[in-house]
Amino acid sequence: MEGVRTVLSIDGGGVRGLIPGAVLECLETQLQKIDGDDNVRLADYFDVIAGASTGAIIAAMLTVPSEHCRPLYRAEDIKDFYMDNAPNIFPKRSCSLLKMMIGPKYDGKVLNEVLMEGLGYTRIRDTLTNVVIPTYDIMQQQPIIFSTQEARANDEDQDKNLLLYDICIGSSAAPTYLPAHEVLSGDMEFNLIDGGIVANNPTLVALNCLIKEDWRYGNNGDLQPCTVKILSIGTGKTRVKKMYSAKKVSKWGVFDWIYQFRGKRSPIIDCFREAGPDMVDIHVSVLFRTCQGNYLRIQCDDLIGVEGSMDNSKKKNLNNLVEKGRSLLRRRVKRVNINTGDYENVVNDQRSNEEALRDFAIHLSNERKRRSFEA
């Protein structure tokens, strides 16, 4: 394929999906203005849309087809999805310590009902662009990556051509929060938990998908940064730098790592959710160091206290997350420091994230027009 291939990647993070929701709404609005068409959708512009956990749900919403073979949902519908459903998916009633010791915090029934209603019986091969969703099979003890590309390529073997509903439920099944999800498909049995364990920032998973596509078409799979444009959107980082000290955690046992009374947090989950996305961002930043304009990472790095919770479904917190996403658009573009891991202002880039998104949207529009002209 000539030209530039385009990737959208959306992190996991529970109710914090409201943050990328605000960013994506802005991007879709800009694309509509640039192309003068209120009917265009994000799926019209991206070759690959990858999402993990809550990002998987967003990716599915952006690509599930209507009866007219157009995206069923707009980017602005993401906010309504979380505002309307999060309080019932993550009810505010207190959860006893005993219950948390013998089972997940939430039973997942509402999430199952909401996703079945919203996604129906659409299978991953039927999405409007290539969707990539990581999960983890707890029985096989290995990552399972579901993609539109693979489901379409293997016509004779449809074991991984699951319902989007099943894949999203599996990718969202965060340990201690939601139950694992069993799916039977042909001769295969999947026992799925949170895709965030595999890749809470699924950018590299999306890039691997492009490399596999090259191999399939007889190319050498030597993907060059200058031929890919990536928009990666995070669900926020907690500002606290000194959350746990070595002196403190050295005395912890299994229970302490799983649950902390004061913060009602799970330190072990905090660790893998914070470390994984940062490592991917650093790796991709190094990969694109000679072509930085082709990689845009938008991440809120100043969540405080309950803002960092994955399941705080109080209306006040949900509204605050929406505002966090909108205020993020007004801030200057930042880039990860590959040595320290901190997000820093880009010295030679005075743009806001919204301005950077507009420039990104122009490139997306131009690439779409180029393809239409050559078709």
Automatic annotation (TrEMBL):
A motif (DGA/G) lies at residues 194-196. The active site is at S53, D194. GO terms for molecular function: monoacylglycerol lipase activity; phospholipase activity. A motif (GXGXXG) lies at residues 12-17. Pfam families: Patatin (PF01734). A motif (GXSXG) lies at residues 51-55. Keywords: Hydrolase, Lipid degradation, Lipid metabolism. Belongs to the patatin family. The nitrogen atoms of the two glycine residues in the GGXR motif define the oxyanion hole, and stabilize the oxyanion that forms during the nucleophilic attack by the catalytic serine during substrate cleavage. Lipolytic acyl hydrolase (LAH). This is Patatin. The lineage of its organism: Eukaryota, Viridiplantae, Streptophyta, Embryophyta, Tracheophyta.
